[in-house]
């Protein structure tokens, strides 16, 4: 567990939320049905999944409403403005995390792991937002929103939570990033994503 991750999980979560927000806001009107690194899911479906995950983390913490749609079976149909749709979920998530203490060792989560220390629970929420921001960015021709510094911290989180989640289909098997891979490429490969993925394959 790195000191950087422990001390900055709130900043890491805010950065991931902002990356997802900016990426979604930059999707053009013809971008919502494009394919993504999430096999068989469109940009709209990834947005629905990412939004549902943020709501689920908030619901676990506060006892509030859970997502109205299964995040793992997104319909691909979205009524209304996607940016506003995401904004509501991120506001709900941020408000829930604001009530969590930095030293809380048992933060409820929607993960099969159950309650986790605050740094790890918040980091897992950040990991979800950050990787789906990347999915949407590369699907729609945007620059990667994943910084090397954030990826380094998120890798600490991923190493602690991802393996059990693969059995649930949340992450694909890890890929070999190679010895020269940077922090972001190493993280994406560990999460089962090809860092050089493009819509063309």
Features:
mainly alpha; MDMPI_metal-binding; disordered N terminus; Four Helix Bundle (Hemerythrin (Met), subunit A); Maleyloyr_isom; 201 residues; 7 helices; DinB/YfiT-like
Please characterize this protein's 3D structure.
The chain is mainly α and 201 residues long. It has a single domain, classed as Four Helix Bundle (Hemerythrin (Met), subunit A) (Up-down Bundle), CATH 1.20.120.450. 54% of the residues lie in helices and 0% in strands. The protein is built from seven helices and no strands. Helix 2 packs antiparallel against helix 4 (82-98), helix 3 runs parallel beside helix 4 and helix 5 crosses helix 6. The radius of gyration is 16 Å and the shape is globular. Residues 13-137 form the Mycothiol-dependent maleylpyruvate isomerase metal-binding domain. It holds the Pfam family MDMPI_N. This is Mycothiol-dependent maleylpyruvate isomerase metal-binding domain-containing protein. It comes from Microbispora corallina. InterPro entries: CHP03086 (IPR017520), DinB/YfiT-like (IPR034660), Maleyloyr_isom (IPR017517), MDMPI_metal-binding (IPR024344).
Record field, number of beta strands: 0
Classify the secondary structure makeup into a structural class. Answer: mainly alpha
CATH level-two architecture? Up-down Bundle
CATH topological fold name: Four Helix Bundle (Hemerythrin (Met), subunit A)
**Strand coverage percent:** under 5%
Unreliable parts: 1-6
Q: What is the name of the CATH class?
A: Mainly Alpha
Count of discrete domains: 1
Largest sheet: none
From the spread of the alpha carbons, the general shape counts as globular
Number of helical stretches of at least 4 residues: 7
Helix content: 40-55%
Order of helices and strands: HHHHHHH
Overall mean pLDDT score?
93
Radius of gyration: 16 Å
Protein name: Mycothiol-dependent maleylpyruvate isomerase metal-binding domain-containing protein
Organism: Microbispora corallina
Domain Mycothiol-dependent maleylpyruvate isomerase metal-binding: 13-137
Pfam families: MDMPI_N (PF11716)
């Amino acid at each position: 567990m790195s000191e950087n991750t422990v001390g900055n999980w709130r900043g890491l979560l805010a950065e991931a939320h902002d990356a997802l927000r900016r990426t979604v806001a930059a999707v053009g009107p013809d971008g919502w049905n494009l394919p993504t690194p999430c096999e068989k899911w469109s940009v709209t479906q990834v947005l629905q999944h990412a939004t549902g995950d943020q709501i689920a983390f908030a619901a676990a913490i506060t006892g509030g409403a859970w997502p109205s749609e299964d995040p793992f079976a997104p319909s691909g149909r979205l009524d209304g403005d996607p940016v506003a749709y995401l904004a509501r979920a991120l506001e709900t998530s941020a408000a829930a995390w604001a009530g969590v203490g930095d030293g809380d060792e048992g933060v409820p989560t929607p993960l099969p792991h159950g309650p986790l220390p605050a740094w790890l629970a918040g980091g897992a929420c950040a990991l979800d937002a950050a990787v789906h921001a990347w999915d949407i960015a590369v699907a729609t021709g945007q620059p990667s929103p994943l910084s090397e510094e954030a990826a380094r911290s998120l890798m600490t989180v991923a190493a602690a939570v991802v393996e059990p989640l693969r059995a649930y289909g949340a992450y694909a098997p890890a890929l070999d990033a190679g010895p020269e891979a940077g922090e972001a490429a190493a993280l994406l490969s560990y999460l089962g994503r090809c860092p050089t993925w493009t819509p063309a394959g």
